[in-house]
Amino acid sequence: DWTPKSFVEESVAELKEKLGNDRVVLGLSGGVDSSVAAMLLHKAIGENLYCIFVNNGLLRKNEFSEVLEQYKGMGLNVKGVDASARFLDALAGLSDPEEKRKAIGGIFIEVFDDEAHEISDVKWLAQGTIYPDIIESVSATGGPSVTIKSHHNVGGLPDFMKLKIVEPLKALFKDEVRRVGASMDMDKELLGRHPFPGPGLAIRILGDITAEKVRILQEVDAVFIGNLRKWNLYDSVWQAGAILLPVNSVGVMGDERTYEKCVALRAVESTDGMTADWVNLPYEFLQKTSNEIINKVKGVNRVVYDISSKPPATIEWE
Ligand code: XMP
């Protein structure tokens, strides 16, 4: 019988056997899958697991520093690499969604490859791949899988991709991954995190990306997600986020006319991301959240709620 506990015991034994004293590198994303994979490997090989957590500057507000501290608190051998400026530079002037994804994937590979070279004698690349990632062509669960593929076609393989691959979660579904994490006493909030795309806020800022737009969207998103938690709605939503629209609209503040940004809020119910329904959030929640965003976030004067389901709309706008 499959139980999370027996899975942990068996996997740890197998990983010990397979990896011996080898060094392993793993990219942490802040998401559930890479975090649980790291914890399993940590149990098996301890300090021989080298984790790299890259800040692409497109994460949620304060996420990089908070999650990095959390990883350290879990005892992981983790290095945080703040490469925000490199990503923002590479994105400057790009508006096309696929070009943005490619730029982000390309820089991620460069940064990760540089960091992997810093670890002497590394033999394995560990990944938090789960079963649905293998059967779907596009990862719904984070990671640069898509963009790595397009990069292949351009240059040769980066060195870290020539490493042997170890994927301890590749037979599991998301809910099983969460249960495995829980049986290792991992933090509930970390295990319950919504999926978040690898390219992060870059595909929620429609059009070109600037540091100021990232700041605005991080503030808006923090109000929205914070309120979902406050109202106990977070766990009943599969995924939620805010989108910065490439339009300004007219508003009034006091006697003044304003001409500022418009943001869309999106919250969906889903089981696998392949189909999704918009969530019927309480009107009072939407009302309070909209007021709070407009009052607190400088540069935004209008909030709309996305009531489109997938298909035909997608979860992300880009
Ligand atoms: P869509 O927008 O296609 O999204 O309905 C389905 C799920 O996939 C996520 N998503 C991505 N994840 N890289 C990722 O790692 C991407 O480029 C990407 N695009 C969409 C999206 O957040 C949702 O969970």
Automatic annotation (TrEMBL):
Pathway: Purine metabolism; GMP biosynthesis; GMP from XMP (L-Gln route): step 1/1. It catalyses: XMP + L-glutamine + ATP + H2O = GMP + L-glutamate + AMP + diphosphate + 2 H(+). Its EC number is 6.3.5.2. Catalyzes the synthesis of GMP from XMP. Homodimer. The chain holds residues 194 to 511 of 511 of the full protein. It comes from the Bacteria. ATP binds at S29, G30, G31, V32, D33, S34, S35. It comes from Bizionia argentinensis JUB59. Keywords: ATP-binding, Glutamine amidotransferase, GMP biosynthesis, Ligase, Nucleotide-binding, Purine biosynthesis. This is GMP synthase [glutamine-hydrolyzing]. GO terms for molecular function: ATP binding; GMP synthase activity. One of its GO terms (cellular component) is cytosol. Residues 2-193 form the GMPS ATP-PPase domain.
